[in-house]
Amino acid sequence: MFGTFRTLLAFAVVADHLGGVPGTGAYAVFGFYVLSGYLMTMILHETYGYSASGFVRYALNRWLRIFPVYYVALGVSLVLVLVLGDEVSRTFHKSIGVPQGAGDILRNAALFLSFDTETRLVAPAWALTIECVFYVLIGLGASRFYWGTIAWLGLSVAYSTYLFLGDAPWSYRYFTVAAASLPFSLGAAVYHVRKRHFRMAMSDRSKNGMLAVVVGGICVNYALSAALELTELMGIPFYINLVLMALLIANLASHRDAVLVDGSVDKRIGDMSYPVYLLHYQAGLIVWLATPLERGDLRLFFASSVVVVLLAYVANRIVENPINRIRNKLRPAGHVL
């Protein structure tokens, strides 16, 4: 049920960014990173391999996954800011505005962004830059071997612990490439540990029971921490969430079929996740202009969700579906990532 899981994570980001639900965006983005670490390690081991030709096919597949829809989102943002003007668009989000010179244009076009980039036409795209960095590192063999992956995870835990105990600013623990090493390495470790240590068969009843426990743990962890200050959300509960996400991914990976929904339905739901992530600020800007709703109002989240689903559906049908036919030729039959 990775498709439904991805889309739920995407809407958790939307709930934070537009509805003001605290912390869900950060929890979800690191959940995406854990899932990417797992999936990229899996497809390199089981689909592409580590030869030069395998890396080229893998890299091209990732480019086709990330960039075409990103350029659609970029185009939608550009039209909005040119029509509305810099001041109006930046009132809604400080980073969405008219590019300030050639440097801004090139950084946005090349997806070479950080959270500190002054103009990001697709505001959450800084996280895609981090994804691309780890796509390359994993493709070059960062998670090729079991003990190498465990060492990578150990170093990432040590670094994150150092930042946390040293009271480093939140920006260092979340927005940087180095901080993202922890969830990516954790996802890669989940793949290796499952393959090496958990090959025993389990009944569907046991798997579903474990799934319910893990999902319940995620909800309880967030609810308890959300009852505290926002700083608590970004403290120890943030890292507990990472562990729970890893357990959830391991559990979902153990199911041969999608849970609760049919596999084909799960795939269609999952196809919405990436365009929802890319287009939710644009949808929010449109609703914000048409209504008295402000960012931080849950009603803006719900109203914008309708618009972003429509935008995501169009992007999926017009762009992603044709591109996926090309991507399918880069991998053996039966592999869908």
In short:
With 337 residues, the protein is an all-alpha fold. The protein has helices at residues 2-19, 24-48, 52-84, 86-92, 102-110, 126-139, 146-165, 170-174, 177-197, 204-226, 230-233, 236-253, 263-270, 273-290, 298-328.
Describe the structure.
The chain is built from 15 helices and no strands. It has helices at 2-19, 24-48, 52-84, 86-92, 102-110, 126-139, 146-165, 170-174, 177-197, 204-226, 230-233, 236-253, 263-270, 273-290, 298-328.
Features:
337 residues; mainly alpha; 0% strand
Give me the secondary-structure topology.
Layout: H1 2-19, H2 24-48, H3 52-84, H4 86-92, H5 102-110, H6 126-139, H7 146-165, H8 170-174, H9 177-197, H10 204-226, H11 230-233, H12 236-253, H13 263-270, H14 273-290, H15 298-328
Helix pairs in contact: 1-2, 1-13, 1-14, 1-15, 2-6, 2-9, 2-12, 3-4, 3-6, 3-14, 3-15, 7-9, 9-12, 10-12, 14-15
Number of helices: 15
Proportion of helical residues = over 70%
Taking all Cα atoms into account, the compactness measure Rg is 20 Å
Number of strands: 0
Alpha carbon gap, first and last residue: 13 Å
3D shape: globular
Share in β-strands: under 5%
Q: Catalogue the unreliable spans.
A: none
Give the class from helix and strand content and strand pairing: mainly alpha
Q: What integer is the average pLDDT?
A: 92
Number of domains: 1
The quaternary structure here is single chain
Largest pleated sheet: none
Q: What is the H/E string?
A: HHHHHHHHHHHHHHH
